[in-house]
Design brief:
By secondary structure, the chain is an alpha/beta fold. Helices cover 48% and strands 17% of the residues.
Length: 253
């Protein structure tokens, strides 16, 4: 079983070394010691140290405090809990530290048992928080997928017409589908479907259909009847019906 890796950020060398020994004695793995922001970043970036938890002194060498550094590390290690170590017990300092969403706050000198308890509580709390984040991310991803599917469905409905007998006409693509399969039609045959689907369920005169197919010169009744006959042989015989010899309509679902 892998040991919990803990990064020590402490500017007092004696305290840092003692803390390292205490952690090792408690069964943890001290994975690095740093005394300021610069060295902490070097350990994380150059030496690729990946801690499971950080013990952070509030007052460090250099201009950057542990509180400021903890806020910066939130962007780099968002799932790694931080426990603050300090001799300062002032309420204002504690309040400022709490704004970093720290997982613990130990006042020096602290007992070994208190240190271990703080670490275990922080690890468990961080584990639960990370699980909740993953669950929330999963829910957000599901919602995005559903929203995308809904938008596609809305888009598809706006550009398609549901017809009887399992047919669907896509106005944008100008394709007639039977189920999920496109029906193989000639350009003239699809023009008949297109014109009928411009006013689906309503009567369209033969003259209108002929003009849509042969705009330059009408081919006549016989040519139209022959074209319609071939089209009807490719689709359900009752999808296109004659309206009392006054025209034709396509049947809506």
């Amino acid at each position: 079983m892998n040991k919990t890796k803990i990064l020590i950020v402490e500017d007092e060398p004696i305290i840092a070394l003692n803390l390292k020994q205490v952690l090792a004695g408690l069964g943890y793995e001290p994975c690095g010691i740093s005394n300021n922001r610069c060295n902490t970043m070097r350990l994380l970036n150059d030496e690729q140290i990946k801690p499971d938890l950080i013990l952070m002194d509030i007052y460090l060498q250099g201009p950057t405090t542990g509180i400021v550094l903890a806020k910066e590390l939130k962007d780099i290690l968002p799932n790694v809990p931080v426990i603050f170590l300090t001799a300062n017990s002032e309420l204002a300092t504690i309040k400022e530290a709490s704004e970093t969403m720290a997982y613990g706050y130990l006042i020096k000198p602290y007992k070994k048992s208190h240190l271990q308890a703080a670490i275990e509580v922080a690890l468990e709390k961080a584990k639960e928080d990370n699980k909740n984040k993953l669950d929330l991310t999963a829910v957000k991803n599901i919602n995005k997928t559903l929203e995308h599917k809904l938008s596609l469905d809305v888009e598809r409905k706006s550009r398609t017409i549901k017809l009887k007998y399992g047919y669907l006409y896509d106005k944008e693509k100008e394709i007639l589908y039977f189920g999920d399969e496109p029906v193989k039609l000639t350009s003239k045959e699809i023009k008949i479907i297109k014109v009928l689907c411009q006013t689906p369920g309503q009567n369209v005169s033969q003259e209108q259909l002929e003009y849509a197919i042969w705009q330059d010169e009408p081919a006549g009744y016989a040519a139209f009847r022959s074209l319609l006959f071939r089209l009807r042989n490719k689709i359900h015989k009752d999808l296109i019906i004659n309206q009392n010899n006054t025209g034709y309509k396509i049947e809506l679902l």
